[in-house]
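Re: the 397-residue chain
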Amino acid sequence: MRYWQYIALCLVPVAVGCGTIGHPRQTETMPIIIGPFCSHDAEHHQERIQRMLDKTGGQPAIFQFAPGAYCLTDTGGLHVPSHVTLLMEGARFLLAETLQADGQAFLLDNASDVVLRGGEIIGRREVWAPSVNVAGIRVCGSGANITVEGLVCHDVSSNAVGVFGTSDDAPIRNVVLKSVTGINCCNMYIDYLQPNKGPVPGSDRRDQGTVALYYVDGWAVDACRFENSQSDGTHFFHCKNGQFMNSTVIGSKMGGYFLEGCQRVLASGNRFQGNGSRGVTIERDSQFCTLTGNLVSQSGREGLWMPDVCAIIVSANLFSENGRKDDEDKDCEIRLDETKEYATVTQDVRIEGNVFYTSPRQTAAIYTSKGIENTAIMNNTFHGDAPQCFPAAETSK
């Protein structure tokens, strides 16, 4: 076999994402090799990579990074165009210690049909100023068909992956995060039960969440691990038609799994453990969502909080030792509220077939406030000294 024939067999075909989640298309585009670059010329790594990406001219292209270190010295990040696949296994992207402005390592601005596979993004949050918010991957504007797979991101001061559509009417569509690991990411956020609560000066709520999705329609987060977030482990805002599955969220300073104003979202097979605030929050006009087959344990506040929601199923989960912080009567496994702050009236909630392990300090395993309609709480299993439900007379209608 001739040498050029051997190379061709090794490099094609390569899968590139297309318009439907989980259905890649095939292309015979030959990968363009990037790097490795000389370490003594680190200040020019970013501009050299960018020049190569810019040469695609909007045409489909595959870039394969040679294993090694690539230095990023500009918080504008590497701008990834549409119709591009980045193969980054073995590549390490080092964000400079000297960064002094908000930004990211990779930016997808109005980009579609993009795949980022593998790679490690290494931040330096311990030396950056608290007001500097640098993400791993940031997607914004309009766009569709974005896949991030096998990425490891740690020590950045904003999201490991943040996807930000424009509005409910202009979402980013079809986003897949698979086997993504984010460790010690996000802005600093001071717990509600401590003085000076809230985000540190210079950051905003979009910097919360190791993974943050805003205005995304059609998405899946699968087999991911988000650990030791400095704010929320996840934050999904006005997202529709999504799945969060087979993932682990542990050790967040704030919440673990956070749905806000979301619709038709399924969560199953996940572990939410040791998060500083609520293990799971489903709130603020969220509708038609399920939480099934998950482990929710050792949260600082409630295991699950649900205010101002409609059509929610909570089934076959294990809740254990949540409410570790003293938050008065909110120390419980599940708290179901009607706050009257949002348009949705809390109703049509079904809590069935769950297992609860409680402690004596908790107000109840399940706490329901007044004004909740059409709620079914049945066939659950309770262990421990806390009352099963409070108030008992209002738990089933």
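The domain at 255-397 is CATH 2.160.20.10 (Pectate Lyase C-like).
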